[in-house]
Queue: 3 jobs
Job 1
Amino acid sequence: MTGPQLSPATVAASARPPRPFSSVYAGNARSVMARGWRATRSTNSLVVLSGFVEPIFYLLSMGLGLGALIGQVQTADGTQVPYAAFIAPALLAVAAMNGAIYDSTWNVFFKMQFAKLYEGMLSTSLGPLDVALGEISLALARGLLYATGFMLVMQALGLNLSWWALLALPAVLLIAFGFASVGMAVTSYMKTFQQMDWITFVLLPMFLFSATFYPLSVYPQGIQYVIQTLPLWHGVELVRALTTGQINLGLLWHVLYYAVMIVVGLFLTTRRLKALFLN
């Protein structure tokens, strides 16, 4: 008596060796992102909208209001630009950061600690890198949404001073990717809402002091060195150079900074998810 006949496709699939790193990455991060996107669409749109309008309020109040009193500001390479054109690219970088951080911290914290969503995901064929890439991709989508809207506002106000500004959107995606990767890695170690407050505690001074509203030169030399280690400062300098047309090889340093952030964030997030749910 013979058993059930297997199809040639099934035999071929069973004969294939397992893919390397299959326990970490199944190549299906898009399903994690799709699930997150459907859940986001069902949430209160005002929550999503708030991250977009906040930088615009800063731009209108300080860039146009205070800018009328300040006039021209000198950039890092000595170029004089209107104050509104000086802070607008910085706020664009902030918009990308806000969108990425919101999804990769508070949303991830809820899914991890209360919804227990990742335990269910990792009980399937999905690996921790699938989950990390899916959640980070969702954060990138929000960051891109905020940045695109803000870019349109900048264009309407005449604050994009160069055609190089077209590269600002890829730049803010890089910024969002870096913050989302590190944000998710940090969140994976958080256990309580009180601990999550530390994220805001770090982001607020970084927002205020990363040459967002003032040139770096106004600070004492020692503080300048500290500011230049902050990730947002690198994002502000990169986007500001693109929107004002101040292109030089030094911009590659900012790109490299975020590339390192992305690699380190993905590594730590994957390792942490594996330790929490697969060991």
Job 2
Amino acid sequence: MNSYTTFSLRALAVALLFLASTAHAQLGRPEGLYYKSWGVVIGIDDYQVAPKLSGSLADAKAVADMLRQLGFDEVVEVYDKDAKSRSLKALLNTDLPRKLGRQDRVVVFFAGHAGTTRDMNGQELGYLVPWDAPISNISKAITMDDLKEFSRRVMAKHALFVLDVGVTGWDITPPQSPSFEGRLTPEEETDKRVVQVLTAAGKGEALIQKDGRGVFIHALLAGLKGAADRNKNGWVMASELGAYVTQQVEQATGGTQHPQFVRLDGDGDVVLIEGKKSAYRVEPEPKTATERLAAAKEEYEKAYSILQQQQSTQEALEHLDKALAYDPTYGDAYVLKSYLYLEFLPNLDAALAAGELAVKHAPQNPDSHYTLGLILQKKGRFAEAERALLQAVAVTPTYADVYLSLGDLYREDLKDQKKSVEAYRRYYEAGGTDNRARAYLDQTGPGQPNTKQ
């Protein structure tokens, strides 16, 4: 049997009155996690002096289309001769830093030639080759240091570089597994700055193609369509995309091509697909019965908190559905769900179905029976409503609100004056303070309890 926390339906109804009048402004898609999302897509096939390529341009355009499908507001496309060294450096050093805001995200994609040299300290330095540069000319190249400087200069909190090349040569923060502890909401992710990099291969590795397209791009596009959602919660994070692409490419190439995913700065995680906030969950999915019960209770408490704070009833319902997905026997979730369908998302059939399951799985919760009684009354099934309300006070004999509802049922629907008087009297004896039954009691003759305060 589930434990339960009794809540007062009438107290909750009062708390939700304001919500009921403003729900139209709260339902629907919530404000996004980012103020603005930027994509910078660079693809070069027709090099001026370096060897020409085939497929980079098509791959870049496919990524640009995907970013638009994901809802990116601005997608800047730079192809072939437009990707001159001077133009790319102006874009990264001047144009974008002026435009990107503090709450923005930016994804930079590059497909073309790349190379590696050594800096003055003998450390490897990777670079990208613009349209008008030879592969060996570092002076015109876009180095990894240039990309790091770009990520420092822009105000955007989240930056992801996706490089369809085999390149390395950067200083990174010490390798560590993503820590999801305490990160319970997507808003917490956007509060943490991060710069992440995903490359198609390790240094010097060939980029394998399949069906005329690189296996890296195949995996990248599939991941961005949702395949990278490792915990199936509707959200795709950059860390999930990196893990998915790496696994897919290594498998498809027999372990000859190894994508690299690193975090250059910060400890956040770029959100690539924004799902429902109620489904956001960064912890591993619960597996044992105990874990699933705990997850169900957590979702239920989120739903109740949302209602107390006069937020979206639809979002609260989503949390309740998630609770019941974790534990279909979690009775309290059925109680609250039945009440929402009764009062705020009117659907008597759905309310009745939830109410009957509430009574089945939480029979010791008086609100299971109370809510079911209210539903049956609205459906005109008055005798059944009476039995349900009587069962509620059998569970909790001092539940004043139930006596008030019983008095209303006897007075208005069953036309039983004697029982209505008795129910109203029991209401006041249990501490009820609602004045609407007093006039009726006064009209029934002497002997009514003193209800004046």
Job 3
Amino acid sequence: MISDELKKKLLEFRRERDWEKFHRPKELAVSLVIEASELLENFQWKTDGEVAAMLKGKSAEGVSEEIADIAIYLTYLCHDLNLDLEEIVSRKLDKNREKYPAHRVRGSAKKYNEYNTPA
């Protein structure tokens, strides 16, 4: 997750540019999707081998920059909504443990509603 020190730097960067007025929750959510799409574009139509080669080459920098953009917008969104990212991820992990018990789903890519959940 993003450290408090880095979060402070990000917020200061935004404040110095007076961008808070543009960073409403809807705009930040839209920006997250756009950046995620830009990340995905790096992988579009590539085989696993081509992806592996790309990630060893100079294109890896572009992938890391898109991931950074996603993290930045997510940090701003959590800050503005007064959400603790670590806390909400931890809560979601607990829910996912219940939805996807390891002994039932190990090795399966099925969604939680596609397998029999009774113990």
